[in-house]
Design brief:
Blueprint: E1 2-7, H1 13-25, E2 30-34, H2 41-53, E3 59-63, H3 68-71, E4 79-83, H4 85-94, H5 105-117, E5 122-126, H6 139-158, E6 161-166, E7 169-174, E8 181-184, E9 193-197, H7 203-211, E10 218-220, E11 233-235, H8 237-247, E12 262-266, H9 277-295, E13 299-304, E14 307-311, E15 313-324, H10 329-333, H11 346-359, E16 365-368, H12 372-381, E17 389-390, H13 407-410, H14 414-421, H15 435-452, E18 457-462, H16 464-474, H17 482-485, E19 492-498, E20 507-512
Parallel strand pairs: 1-5, 1-6, 2-3, 2-4, 4-5, 9-12, 9-13, 10-11, 11-12, 15-18, 16-17, 16-18
Antiparallel strand pairs: 6-7, 8-15, 13-14, 15-19, 19-20
């Protein structure tokens, strides 16, 4: 798949490109093609920030300032994210080290991008919108703008999908994104709203008409201080951000505004990179702050000629397969078995081998609880040479003094009767855990895995109790208890998790097995 992403400074282009690369690549290699050549400390800081943004995503970085098809030995199964067309053309037109001017560099770049993208499975190109300012430029700069526009048009024609990013939102201009990434419009439900657009585009009038904002409710920012964060409407947010950039201050977190605030900001993020360092910093800060507002839940509307265009938020949809381990001797004897480390029984191995023939080799980022029964199940389902991580936080409930015993054996025990007849979700087994303690431990571990592991597909082999606890948490509306959610051995649920998640409403599922 070929995708072009364009937009202003700090608009969310790179973040979307990374999500798309993760979604498209699956288990295959992913490469980050870095075209920028640092010329000063500002460039080096920008490169460091991009490196931090993609940390933990398993990109192999390939530095290539020009000539992709000549200088990169392409992996035909690889996913390549190239950032950016803007830098690639700049290097070709003006030189990456010593200055020289090549007027027809855009033609070379167009051919290079077409050749290289045709050699790889997936290619994502990031470019910059530099066409929306009112300044007049020298012939070389105008040649560069014209060349970049030609390169973008050429790439757009070749691409399966074209996306414009603005203020953390996105507009799909061509085609469709892969199903693993959705563009979701946030409904107008009384929460924070951001209105962006060019100068005098009708943003304030739009706020009045659509959100009932009166003139008296608008606090107009200045470049000399902070706004009134209690105001219903904040006008000219970009002026406050100019103040922050000049004073070297971090802008206030979005939580500083009212929950129902309407924030109006002039879009200053497009156009040729300013010569003044403060202007560059201001522009970048404005784009990133708008992106942050969108990421933390604000709805974004772009106003053009008085008309509002609702911007969708890119949301990645990931899969998590939760599987219960195969049968053990304790399962066969109907014994309580949580912390006891039993292997699969002979019958359990046979059943999981049959499941492996049905499922095919499991692929993705693999996890077990680190118990012999989960490790053994994973090694059959994913292959003996598979690599997986052990997470003790995913272990079954510790039944303490009840471990290894059956219901019939425990019935005479008054401690057991108190536990089983009372609130056994809150009641703790003697020397062990309660159901609530187990579920909280498992949720914390599950949340951390999702935060730290960017993989598109995650496979977890764990136990019946932890799986049921997660399902109860995600789907409370189904009103099932832990025993009703518990899957059979070697079976489980395939979850689809949207966005940062995980929480009720962000997850859907289907039974698996």
């Amino acid at each position: 798949m070929k995708i072009l992403i364009t937009g202003g400074a700090g608009s969310g282009k790179s973040a979307l490109a990374q999500e798309l690369a993760l979604a498209l690549s699956g288990d295959a290699p992913r490469y980050y093609v870095a075209a920028m050549v640092p010329r000063d400390g500002e460039d080096r800081r920008r490169i460091r920030r991009h490196i931090e943004d993609r940390s933990g995503m398993d990109f192999e970085t390939v530095e290539c300032p020009m000539g992709l098809s000549d200088n990169i030995k392409a992996d035909p199964e690889g996913t390549y994210l190239m950032d950016s067309v803007t830098a690639l053309l700049s290097n070709a037109m003006f030189g990456s080290t010593d200055f020289h001017y090549v007027p027809d560099a855009a033609e070379q770049v167009k051919k290079d991008l077409e050749t290289f993208s045709g050699r790889v499975r997936h290619f994502i190109a990031v470019s910059d919108g530099i066409y929306s300012d009112a300044l007049r430029y020298d012939p070389m700069t105008e040649g560069y703008r014209q060349g970049l526009a030609a390169a973008e048009r050429h790439l757009a024609a070749l691409s399966d999908a074209v996306v414009e990013c603005s203020a953390g939102g996105a507009v799909l201009l061509k085609g469709a994104l892969p199903e693993e990434v959705e563009l979701v419009e946030r409904e107008e439900n009384g929460g924070m709203e951001v209105i962006v657009g060019g100068a005098h585009a009708g943003k304030t009038q739009y706020a009045a008409q659509h959100f009932g904002i009166s003139k008296e409710e608008i606090f107009v920012c200045s470049e000399n201080g902070t706004p009134d964060f209690n105001a219903r409407c904040i006008g000219h947010l970009e002026r406050y951000l100019r103040h922050c950039a000049a004073a070297d201050l971090e802008p206030a977190p979005p939580a500083s505004f009212r929950e129902d605030a309407v924030i109006i900001c002039e879009d200053i993020t497009c156009g040729i990179v300013p010569v003044d360092p403060l202007d560059r910093k201001w522009r970048e800060m404005t784009g990133r702050y708008l992106q942050r507002l969108a990421r933390e839940g604000a709805g974004v509307t772009r106003v053009v000629c008085g008309f509002g265009q609702r911007l969708a938020q890119p949301v990645r949809v990931r899969e998590v397969l939760l599987l219960r381990h195969g049968r053990t001797e304790a399962n066969e004897k109907r014994q309580y078995c949580g912390s006891t480390d039993q292997p699969l029984s002979a019958k359990g191995r046979e059943e999981i081998e049959n499941k492996a023939a049905l499922y095919g080799p499991l692929r993705g980022s693999l996890y077990t609880s680190g118990m012999r029964r989960t490790d053994g199940t994973m090694e059959i389902l994913a292959g003996p040479a598979c690599t997986y991580r052990r997470e003790p936080g995913l272990r079954e409930m510790d039944f303490g003094g009840f471990e290894g015993k059956t219901y019939e054996e425990l019935c005479p025990d008054p401690d057991y009767r108190r536990w089983i007849c009372g609130d056994n979700e809150r009641n703790r087994c003697p020397g062990g855990e309660s159901g609530e303690q187990m579920e909280e431990r498992v949720r914390r571990t599950f949340d951390r895995i999702l935060r730290e592991d960017p993989a598109q597909r995650i496979v977890i082999v764990t136990h019946g109790g932890p799986i049921a606890g997660l399902m109860r948490h995600f789907f409370p509306e189904e009103d099932k208890n832990r025993y009703e959610w518990q899957p059979g051995c070697g079976e489980g649920y395939l979850l689809k998790i949207r966005g940062a998640g995980p929480g009720p409403g962000a997850v859907s599922y289907r039974p698996f097995g």
